[in-house]
Amino acid sequence: MKRIKGIALLGFLALLVVSLVACSGDGDKETGGDSKGEITLDFWTFGATGYEELAKEYEKQNPNVKIKIKSSETADHHDALFTSLSAGSGAPDIAMLEIDQFDRFKVAQDRFNNLYDLGAKDVQDQYLDWKWKSGENADGDFLFGLPTDIGPKALYYRTDLFEQAGLPTDPEEVAALINSPEAFEEAGLKVKEATGMPFVDSIEMAFRAYLDAAETAYLTPDNELNLGEDSEVKKAYDYAVHLNDLGIVGKYEMWSPEWANAVNKGEFAAELGAGWLKGWMEGNAPDAVGKWKVATLPTEFAANWGGSYIAVPSETKHAQEAYDFIEWLVSPENQLKSFQSHGLFPSAHSVYEMEEFKTNEDEFFGNQATAPVFAEAAQDITGIGYKGEKYFPVHNEILNALKNVQNEGADPEKEWEAAVKRAEDLMKR
Amino acid sequence: MNSANKKAIWKKKKYRSEEKKDMISGYLYIAPFFIIFALIGLYPALFSIYLAFQKWNGLSPMTFNGLANFELVLTDPLFWKSVYNTIVMGIMGTAPQLVVGLILAYLLNLAFLKFKSFFRVTIFMPYLTSMVAVALIFSVLFSNHESSFANYVLTNLFGLDPVSWAASEWGTKIAISLMVFWRWVGYNTIIYLAGIQSIPNDLYEAATVDGANKFQQLRYITIPMMKPFIILTVFTSTVGAMQLFSEPTVFLGADAFTRDEAMTIVMYLYRDAFRLQSFGTASATAIILLVIITIFAVINLRLTQGFGRKKRGVKK
Q1: Domain A34-150+307-357 sits in CATH 3.20.20.220
Q2: What pTM does this model have?
Q3: Closest partner residue to A111 among B13, B59, B72, by Cβ?
Q4: Concatenated DSSP letters of A192-217
């Protein structure tokens, strides 16, 4: 008798568990096709991409496809995606991946569809080679994502401060004058002498000058730390310390209110910014209209900062449909649209030849057509350094060292050694 | 087995199994809680013990790591800094809270105080506010900027130098402790108030007849009688202080996991798991935190058991 009750009890418990599990698992994952053959694709994005409008256009052309876009803040987006991929359920059909976050996802190749299997080889030659290559795995036989925008760096400079310092203000003349790290330094000294203002806004930007251009940054592709005395990171570190010793580095921190104010008022002369900074300036520095211009950087500093990819996680039931959509979404024509509406700088090189792109004048930059400057910068880039899973934690440690040097006058060599020690510790985890 | 058969057996055993039946239905009633607890409480807890001995980044397969995770954490200066921060902010945030809470409760219970319920509600109010809203507002009041409210008060009213509240060793700790204090003092006051009101009046009357003054009454009647309430608040405050996380995280925003001035043990743990993708060391930290909380609980127990048992103290 006991047994029957026991079985009944067990059955009841089992039922409860099943219903609980059913509640928690399902719900948002209703992406399966219904009887009409209509499919829904979940698409997670971050930041302002304007993909909503493009998706509507695609839905019109493909009435059987519905695209559900969920846009979140950059860090939240990647954390949510990471969690759902780690749990093995809840990931979207399509997901955007920021280039700096990309490498922590690359360790999980099995959680993504190989876009080469879905037809990506056919469109490869439309995109910048370096951008395409960093969407692949190390062996080059697996493609995680299609390229969206890129972040070619250029020299943003204040024309009023340059003028006071007796420097040229025309973008081409500036690019011709500041054509090497040494010339960059000299220009900085002139600005400081004449105006008293710092040249570069922050020690991070001074550091990033060489860092972003490094072929091997903190980690080698085998995930070994690369912080020896003759490493590229050390070179970038020493350069930042050197500029700081010359007194031409400001103490602003990017995105802080004080920094925004300085951009607006012209309290520093130059910013090594990527293409996307333009959009921010236009919206947030109303007093600086016509005061900033953009020139190409010395080739030593030519680098990419930011940009994204779109990937198709392997959980999706509609890999091919998802791929067809993203191939359309990042086609050169649509990249031009994203550029015009939201300033996403195209990674498809054919866009650079388009008339609408070349003549896109910016009122903010005193009617300079800035796009070609960035396009030139994009083509100067030879490759993107391997970043690796722990890029940011290591970056923060080195950056803390630099901040201590700048703010507390700490000894750069000691700070460097301490930061390397902390970085080594991080790598063991 | 058919139903008639079943019934017969039921009947036969009915008398004997009445108690058992009650027991089973009782278990069934409480089963939902235990099932949910097992799924979202117990399972993750046990799994994190398992994880503490693995190296895992969340996506790749796990590899057994032995005690290396514990070694990494225990030899990390940042971990000890976080333990130090947690204890310092814990003491600064909770100790004054308990003293002030006791005083406030005493004042709120005074017979001649007017608008009692108004004051009671007002003092309790901060506890009801959203933590994130509080931390955001405090981060504006205590910003690094020279014109922030806190710096304005310091410079204009006291003639002191401005403090960078979000980036200096003591500035951050003081700002966060103040925030914790402000939010929790009302909660403890209400508990103490309930405690004070539960003390029978005849004890005080008897004491007055015996010639005890107000201070003696407080010392020999109120505090010993309040002992269970004090133990409760000390306990919850200690555990809460050990788990300090949201306040510093929201207060410091983007800097929360890159600077070390206000990094608490739980933040250290979170940083390991979700910033460094190192779930093994994060789980090891969780176990170390468990040990630390246990130690503090035992110390608490020892300390609180001792006090209130003076010669004339009331035995429980």
Answers
A1: no
A2: 0.76
A3: B59
A4: HHHH---SBS-HHHHHHHHHTT-SB-
